[in-house]
Each structure stands twice: as structure tokens, then as C-alpha cells.
Amino acid sequence: MKSICFYFQVHQPFRYRRYRFFDIGNDHYYYDDYANESILRKVADRCYLPANQMMLELINKHKGKFKVAYSISGLALEQFELYAPEVLDSFRALADTGHVEFLSETYSHSLVSMKNNDLFRQQILEHDRLIEKYFGQKPTVFRNTELIYSDEIGELIADMGYKAMITEGARHILGWKSPNFLYVNAINPRLKVLMRNFKLSDDLAFRFSNQGWNEYPLTAEKYVGWLKSMGKDEIFNIFLDYETFGEHQSAETGIFKFMEQLPDAVFKNSKITFATPSEIAANFQPVSIVSVPTPISWADEERDLSAWLGNELQDEAFNKVYELADRMSRVTDSAMIKDWNYLQASDHFYYMCTKFFSDGEVHKYFNPYESPYEAFINYMNVLSDFKLRLNTFAPESKSQLEIAGLNKILEEKEAKLKKYEAEIISLQTKQTVQRSVSSVKTVKEKSPGKKK
Predict the structure, then answer these.
(1) Orientation of helix 398-446 relative to helix 372-393, angle to 10°
(2) Alpha carbon distance 123, 399 (integer Å)
(3) Burial, 289: exposed, middle or buried (Cβ in 10 Å; 0-12, 13-18, 19+)?
(4) Domain topology for 3-290
(5) What is the pTM of this model?
(6) What is the residue-averaged pLDDT of the chain?
(7) pLDDT in tens, 70-82
(8) What is the end-to-end Cα distance of the chain in Å, rounded?
(9) Are 123 and 110 a contacting pair, CB within 8 Å?
(10) Which end of the chain is flanked by fewer CB atoms within 10 Å, N or C?
(11) Which residue, among 123, 122, 172, 166, has the nearest Cα to 147 in the 3D structure?
(12) Burial code of 298-335, b = ≥16 C-beta within 10 A, e = fewer?
């Protein structure tokens, strides 16, 4: 038996506005609402809505034989609620078919797995609660941010009770082995590992519209022919950014038409089936362990973490934000927790990437900054203001505790002053009205009445 496993990543960060040095301590709102809404609406109209409608029609047309999986970050779900609730409804409609699987991931689409295991677990559980709330599913398969994986991360995920995890079929990891089989974690073999076939995936994600590609144009029949020719291979893990449909590859390239025709070509010309990641983990036998001693991802040619943690700017920002983790564990203020979650999004560190060679164009996608240095300065300004606010809720030292106490007294006095000012204005307004009424009465009394 051979199966195609389609998984799509859905994520949008909350982008920051230009936050200046002089805003620190004076303005605590960091977000570019216009950019966030306009980008989300643009991608929703080009990708999420038409792609979801297409997937729903394919599932209904093929009576459940066509299946897909999604991993939607908590930040994307929040933006759907704010700016495009109809997108959330369309994902619910897919969930209702019973043939779509929603995977677990980190709530903030963060790199926390590289820094803090307790916070990593917390973000996973927070994300899973959202998936159950919106889609009625309890995830059993985990997908880390940008497919980041190592033996130790896999062990932690296995200990949390997940059945499988998906990652990149990196050539330097697999060597002569094929990504088209099921593997297990090297430390805890109970965890199944699905490896992305980067060639078959990138043929759609990056090469599909490239007229200089020797396989252009790619048709559904040609694609199925490639799958059939792969001898004893069992699983074809096609993992993509969902924005491939309509955004990275515009509708004019024929990407939607290709996807619409693919199931027909599969069922007509082969015995290949479609399966979700949990079905792959349940129905296929692992062929061996896969050893990943150092973390890998699906990014760039290196398939490592250098897209996010590859220079001094990124390392500085990354270390500084997670220095606050222990203090944030004592904070219950909802606004602080929201800003803390948004600060951890991997996108902020991606914008600081200084790689401008073969992968440069990828790093420019929806990047609001003109340079990595501008991204770093803006992020550190936001972080500086956030730390000032954090001192109020969880002071780091005795002096900060005293300052926090004084600030609280000042805030209380300021609140009282505003209250008294409002009362004074209210009394002055009443007095003015009373005087006006009295003046009108006096005028009426003095004016000659009509004779009967």
C-alpha cells in the first residue's frame, strides 16, 4: 500500500509598528493594525478561502477518500477571529467532514523548544485547547515550528503522549535512506516520525510556476507518474505552506487546477491512497530509527536553524526575551500574557536574518523591515518597554520592587486625580446648566405677559 500525506502550515504573525526609542515607557501599544489586517485579508481572499473551498469540494466529491491535515498557529487563529471570521468558519466546515486532521504545535509559532521545556509544554497544551475549542479534535500528532526536530525534542513529545511527529527529510540526516517510509525516534521508539519529501513538496511550493524548470509545466498526471515510479516506497509526505495556493503560486499559475485534478489522476492511474498523519502512524510499520542529534528544520538549503538563530542579532534578541520566562510565570495580567506570546513568534527572529544568497528572496516575504538591523532595533525597543511593564508585575530586584511600589502609588494617585477632575467638571457643568435655567426663568418673569 502507498499513501500520499498532505500537510499544510497556516501561520500569520502579529507585526509590530515602527516603535521608536522615545516610545519606550510612554506608549505600550506595539502593533501595526493596518498591516496585520490588510495582509490577513489579502491572504484570506487569495489563499485561505478559495483553497478551503477547493479542499471541501474535493473531500465531498471523492466521498472521504481525499484527506489532508493542517497545523494552524494560535496567532493565526486569533487573527482569523479579529479580521476574517469567515476563514475560521471554512476551517470548521473542513473539520466537520471527518476527513481533515488538525495537528498540535506551539501556540505562538515560537522557537521555545530550543530554550525552555516547561514553557514549550505550556504552549503546546495552550494550542491544543484552542484546537479542541474550534474544531473538536484532540491532536495526536505534533508539528513543531518550521518542522524543527531533534532526538531530544522528539523524546519530550513522546513523553507528552503524542503518537507521531513530522519533520524534514533532510539529506544530511537520511543519507542513503528514503523519506518515503515511516521512522521512529532514536530515544523513544514509541514516537513515529514522518519525514518530508522535500523534492516532491518543493516542486509545488517553489518550482511549479518556474518556466525555466525542465519539468515545466507540471501536470497532475506527470506528478502521479513520478509517485508510481518510486518502487517500494510507501509514503509520500507532501508538506507545504498553505500560502502556496494563491499567494506564493498565484491562481494564474494553475496551482488550483493542478490540485483539483490530482485526486482524479491518483485514483484513475494508481492504487495510491490519501491519508492523514495519524493514519500513517497507525497503518504503516516503521522501517528503522532516525537519529537527529542536532536540531533540523525545513528552512533554506542548510535545513538547520540558521534562518532564525544564525547571527549575533538573532541570538541577542532570542536570549533576552527568554530571560523573562521565570518572571512571566508569575504574571496573570491578560494584556501582558498576550504581548508575551506575540514576542515569541519566530517571525521576529526571521526578519533579522542576514542570509542574502540563494535563500534571500524567501526571507523577504511579507517582511515589514528594510534591513535585519532595523528589525533588531525595533524588536529590542518593544522588548525594552515590555521589560519596564514587567517590573510592575514581577520586579527583578529589591530596588525594582520599591520602584514598582512607588509607581503603583503614583498610578493610584493619578487615577484619583482623574476621578476628582471628572467630578469637578461634572459639578461645573451642572452649575452652568442651573445658571442658564435660572437666567431663562428670570427673563420670562420680567417679560410682559399676554392680556386676557
Answers:
(1) 80
(2) 32
(3) middle
(4) 7-stranded beta/alpha barrel (3.20.110)
(5) 0.86
(6) 92
(7) 999 999 999 999 9
(8) 109
(9) yes
(10) C
(11) 166
(12) bbbeebbbbbbbbbebbeebbeebbebbeebeebeeee
Q: Which three cell numbers stand for residue 139?
A: 491532536
Side chain identity, residue 31: Y
DSSP 305: S
**What b/e readout covers 65-93, taking b as 16+ CB neighbours within 10 angstroms?**
ebbbbbbbbbbbbbbbeebbeebbebbee
Residue 132 annotated as catalytic: no
d(CA 200, CA 229) in angstroms, rounded, equals 13
Q: Quick check: bond before 263 cis, omega within 30?
A: no
Closest C-alpha among 13, 4, 100 to residue 52: 100
SS3 assignment, position 350: helix
Place of cell 472521504: 64
CA distance 109 to 185: 23
In 84-166, alpha helices (H)? 85-96, 117-135, 151-159
Query: Residue 235's beta-bridge partner residues?
Result: 3
Provide the strand spans (E) within 129-256. 141-143, 164-168, 182-185, 192-196, 235-241
Counted residue by residue, the chain has a size of: 452
Q: For residue 315, what are the contacts with CB-CB under 8 A and spacing of at least 6?
A: 309
Marked catalytic residue, from 101, 105, 146, 243: 146
| Helix or strand holding residue 58 (H, E) | helix 49-61
The predicted pLDDT at position 360 comes to 44
pLDDT greater than 70 at residue 32: yes
For 221, half-sphere exposure in the C-beta direction (CA atoms, 13 angstrom radius) is 1
Domain ranges of the chain: 3-290
d(CA 295, CA 212): 33
Maximum distance among all Cα pairs of the chain, rounded to whole angstroms: 116
The DSSP 8-state label assigned to residue 45 in this structure reads: I
Rounded to whole angstroms, how far apart are CA atoms 390 and 45?
38
Asked if 10 contacts 130 with a C-beta cutoff of 8 angstroms, the reply is no
